[in-house]
Amino acid sequence: MSNNNEHKLAGKVAVVTGASKGIGASIAKHLAAEGASVVVNYASSKSGADKVVTEITGAGGRAIAVQGDVSKKADIDRLFAETKKSYGKLDVLVNNAGIYEFGPLEQITEEHFHKQFNLNVLGLILTTQEALKYFPADGGSVINVSSVVGESPLPNASVYSATKGAVDAVTKSLAKELGAKKIRVNSINPGMIETEGVHAAGFMESEFPKQVVSQTPLGRIGQPQDIGKVAAFFASDDAGWVTGETLLISGGMR
Ligand code: NAP
Hints:
Layout: E1 13-16, H1 22-33, E2 37-42, H2 46-58, E3 62-67, H3 73-87, E4 92-95, H4 110-131, E5 140-145, H5 158-178, E6 183-190, H6 196-200, H7 208-214, H8 224-235, E7 246-249
Parallel strand pairs: 1-2, 1-4, 2-3, 4-5, 5-6, 6-7
Helix pairs in contact: 1-2, 1-8, 3-4, 4-5
The structure holds NADP nicotinamide-adenine-dinucleotide phosphate.
The site of NADP nicotinamide-adenine-dinucleotide phosphate has 32 residues, from helix 1, strand 2 and helix 6.
């Protein structure tokens, strides 16, 4: 598959953080289907990551699973060193790993704040910093997974919304900073997507999906594959003149 030049990402190497389930798993599969060799990063779900790798290799693609908590510098360094060891280089970084914890102002604690900022913002900055050492001279593509809440913050989610507002600022700042190195930096900003994380948080059983659908012109909840295919576009040369964008992928909800 990876040798077929009809594939948009033939010969490219991509790291997708948090790819053992949900949006990250779909992004990993879509990048692999376009010919990329994919590093499926995960924190704790080895079985989930192995399943994604098996699906990719079963379809003729290339992938490996690499454990690493991407809120930790040492784990990040190891993730990219293992990528280089297996595939020899890096062309695409997808910063997808993220956590969402909702709660009203009264319930915010230092722990709630640091947990989300350490992964969603600091981790994403540190992975990008490390990736910079591996991108070839002809450039690279960084895709940050942000959220509609970066632009339209939700009530009872001030900290999570703030992390995604910060991600959008980082995307725009680094796009300007890294353009001279031919590194493109864009973000994908999903609306509600039905993932394992959303189920685990109990959102699907709440009134929330109904409210979201009523505010969504295309009239449904998003699915992980709605995001995966757009990531493949941003990773590819089709988006070669696109940087610093934050693209809502939300069925029109804003
Ligand atoms: P999910 O189903 O909960 O999956 C999260 C993934 O991130 C898992 O693979 C998990 O790995 C990994 N992860 C968690 N902490 C990590 C860490 N410290 N280091 C490395 N990997 C870690 O989440 P999702 O719903 O797909 O969301 C993915 C991203 O999309 C997040 O950035 C989220 O903010 C954003 N987003 C989601 C929605 C939505 O409605 N779902 C909407 C907008 C934006 P393990 O399983 O191994 O822990």
